[in-house]
Amino acid sequence: MAKLTRLVFQINGVPRPVVCDPEKDMLSTVLRRIGLTGVKVGCGTGVCGACSVLIDGKVVRSCTKKIGSIPEYSEILTIEGIGAPGRLHPLQQAWITYGGVQCGFCTPGFIVSAYGLLLENPAPTREEVREWFRKNHNVCRCTGYKPIVDAVMAAAKVMRGEATMDDITYDFEAEKDIYGSKHPRPSALAKATGLADYGDDIALKMPEGTAHLAVVIGEAYHANILEIDVSEAEKMPGVIKVMTAKDVKGTNNIDFPAVVPRQRGSGLTEFPVICGEKICRNGDVVALIAADTREHARAAAKKVKQKLEILPAYMTLPEAVMPNSIQLHKNVPNFYMEQPCFKGEDASELIDNAEVVVEGSFHSQHEPHLPIEPDVVQGYWGADGMLTLQCKAQAITEARESVAQACGLKMDEIRIIMNTVGGSFGYSVTANTYALV
Ligand code: FES
Ligand code: FES
Fold first, then answer.
1. Are 238 and 271 members of one domain?
2. Does residue 284 fall inside a structural domain?
3. What is the pLDDT of residue 258?
4. 160 and 275 housed in the same domain
5. Is residue 135 domain-shared with residue 177, that is, in the same domain?
6. Helix 146-159 crosses helix 107-120 at what angle (to 10 degrees)?
7. Which of 49, 136, 176, 357 is the most buried (most CB within 10 A)?
8. Is residue 61 part of a domain?
9. What average pLDDT does range 253-272 have in this prediction?
10. Residue 353: inside a domain, yes or no?
């Protein structure tokens, strides 16, 4: 049983008592619990800066700051305390006008961090702005940082009295044509004020009694599954249901026939919703737990036992396409596609006469999508009988088809709603997570 304490902090200008476990609760958890969901949690490990807040004027990553380590009555400032629609702070206005908001998941943390910078240094150079964000671990995956630095420089001018809010506010009336204009994105206001709800914010606001899911990830990169023993997990507190591949009623495959004519084999790779026969990659799911709380679901997931026949793990493409490599997916060779090679003029003379010639085999690195926002999905039966999934799906029609065929449902009984998305960069085109829900 957790031992709880009542602590009082000056949060966004007012004293607020919070009931918490001082040894376990992180500041971000407590702030989000009292409704300040402008504090975003991306990595949860102190590396992305999405959760930045100010404590007594200093930038702190709240996801790794234990609440019990903060002196009572400290002044805590979150994005909600900086400004709101109708009374924007210059930083928020500049972020909107200069394109600092794209997916917007990093935005509250960046604005809070920039606020801390301008408290210390009201006239920073562009290099100092960049150095500040580097030092405070503020990461953005969308903007390329230039619009963010532009926004800080513009807001700083207003705060020094060298420009007005009008100067940094987009003039909608002067806009002749939206094409070629710098029309701010419609969602920018909500994102710059911390009011945009992403998947994890919606999860906090679901009705009481909503079940939580936890996945059991395969304990190998490549293996044949001999047995998944869920008997202990089923007895864990709060567990509603433990699911394995046999519980998936459809094809249990979220893939579609390839649309690339050069693909070899059947053109259909097996990407099971829950793996029943084989684990082919790091992150493959072998079981799914539904429980009354997130903690109960995760505790039960740890009790699932996996009996596997471990196969060689191929960490690079060259390893996977060696003649003696084991085929990963049924009916699709590991060397699954060959691009035609177009050669230009004969370069042998140039190479023969070159001062230095380097010979070798070169391949590019794995390119992860890596959005900062975690992937959180809500699922419920709508009042009209439709299975409704709220998620990050980027191709909604394809997603419905994919979930329908994999899970044995009718496509016209599935509704997919795209939540506000904190970046995806292509990975949520496939139905991996929302098919699980
Ligand atoms: S640093 Fe806290 S969520 Fe990433
Ligand atoms: S706008 Fe910064 S991560 Fe998307």
1. yes
2. yes
3. 66
4. no
5. yes
6. 40
7. 49
8. yes
9. 79
10. no
Ligand 1 atom nearest the C-alpha of 372 is: 4
In this prediction, residues 337-365 reach a mean pLDDT of 88
Q: What's the CA angle centered on 39, arms 25 and 213, to 5 degrees?
A: 65
**Range of lowest pLDDT (134-143, 312-321, 372-381):** 312-321
Which of 195-229 are b and which e, b meaning 16 or more Cβ less than 10 Å from the residue's Cβ? Answer: bbebbbbbbeeeeeeebbbbbbbbebbbbebeebe
pLDDT the model gives residue 431: 85
Relative to the alpha carbon of 26, which ligand is closest? Answer: 1
Contact 29, 50 (CB under 8 A): no
Question: Are both 17 and 135 inside the same structural domain?
Answer: yes
Say which CATH number the domain at 81 has. Answer: 1.10.150.120
310 and 184, same structural domain? Answer: no
Whether 349 maps to a domain, the answer reads no
Domain count, the chain: 3
Are both 215 and 189 inside the same structural domain?
A: no
**Domain identity same for 211 and 170:** no
Give the ligand with the smallest distance to the CA of 104: 2
The identity of residue 100, as a single letter, is G
Tell me how crowded residue 389 is: count the other CB atoms within 10 A of its CB.
25
What does the DSSP assignment read for 375-435? ---EEEE-TTS-EEEEE--SSHHHHHHHHHHHHT--GGGEEEEEPB-S--TTGGGS-HHHH
Ligand 1 pocket residue status of 65, Cβ below 6 Å: no
Sign of torsion over alpha carbons 217, 220, 223, 227 = negative
ipTM: 0.99
Residue 112: give the domain boundaries: 5-196
For residue 177, the CA-to-ligand 2 centroid distance in Å is 26
- Tokens coding 351: 């190479």
